[in-house]
Amino acid sequence: MHRRMTLRPLAIALALLVLSPLVVAQYGLSNPLIGLKTAPPITKSDIRIIDSILGLDESQRSLTGALYDDFFERYRVEADALEAELTAMIDESIVRQDSSITRAAEDKAEQWDQRRLEWRAEFLTDLKLLLDQQQVELWPKVERELRRHDLIGRGRLAGENVDLIRLVDAHVADWDSNTALVEALDRYADQLDRALRARQRALDDEQTDEFWRTCQDEPYRAKEIYEEVLPTRVRVRDINLETLRAIVKLLSADDAVAVERAFYTEALRSHSPISPIETRIRAASSLPSLSPEQREQIATILQDYEPRRHRTIVGFFDAVAEMEAELLPDRIANAIAQIEHDASGADPRAFRVGDRVPQEVKDALASRLETDLAVWQRVSALLTPDQRTNLPRPNEEIIWFREYLEHEL
User: Fold this and answer.
1) N or C terminus of the chain: which is more exposed, having fewer CB within 10 Å?
2) Neighbours of 273 (CB within 10 A)
3) pLDDT in tens, 278-318
4) Residues 144, 185: contact at Cβ < 8 Å?
5) Are 117 and 42 in contact (CB under 8 A)?
6) Which pTM value belongs to this model?
7) How many CB atoms lie within 10 A of CB 116?
8) DSSP per residue over 365-397, as a string?
């Protein structure tokens, strides 16, 4: 009996050795193409905003347009060549199973960030040659504009990384002919510039590259850092909200709706994914098999849906903004709770912070679900079974869930 029990595991091991495929150790490197910025460092939107600052005349505007077209074409050639080169290097790296080629591609991708800055500097130098003395004296405002473009993306709170000037430029035609709006946005640019520089100083002072290691090793120090930086973030967000409320009063009703909806969509982009129910509703409106009557009825439902959807989004934003201003990220809160548990000798199950998402956030999400479902039921009732089978449904291999209290510093 003892002999049989000893040999059985050995027999299983030998069978596995014979039957199982060879197991090869694996490790991964990040793909240099992911996150590669090939969009031009100066855009048509930037040119329009710079024009609103400097007041280019028709001749200057024509020359600037030609200068930009030449810049864009030359930049595109270099960016496309780099992308093709990196793709070829990754192809070779995979076929040869040689990670050193991927690392070389990573180096080239990192160097590209600096090259993009050089492209922008070259274009701005050429543009400056077209200006008269009075416009040259306004150049610090152009630098302010570029600084905002560079710094705004470090926002982490809902609404902190929205650039209202670019938002207006994208949604309001001929906005620069609205004198009151231009003046309001100029005040906004000045106010936001000061707030962004204050935020950047706070981030630089606190050595934020090491922040999450500090969360693990010195959570009380991490708490201090977080609470020192947080007011600078809240200030940027609040300037955006205050200015949004002011500028919508200067717009036509349609433009005001477009800007406000775009703001909240952008503000919550990293906080809330598009509802799969909303995706289904919108897909239903464009089914090629719809009859004219179905199409008209669904369009009417969507017209009613848009303001209701917007109200749920604003409610969610308000709840998230309050939560972010009051609660520490989970990583810090859990680390502190662990220390306090160790000191107290309490039940080890008691130290976890657990689900701290406030009820107001949960209620806002529930309101969004209720609104989407009510509209979907109306749309679905108009469709045939075959039409419903052609609508998108959740098909992710992994379904990810937001951790609202785990954003970066």
Assistant:
1) N
2) 13
3) 999 999 999 999 999 999 999 999 999 999 999 999 999 99
4) no
5) no
6) 0.83
7) 18
8) HHHHHHHHHHHHHHHHHHS-HHHHHTS-----S
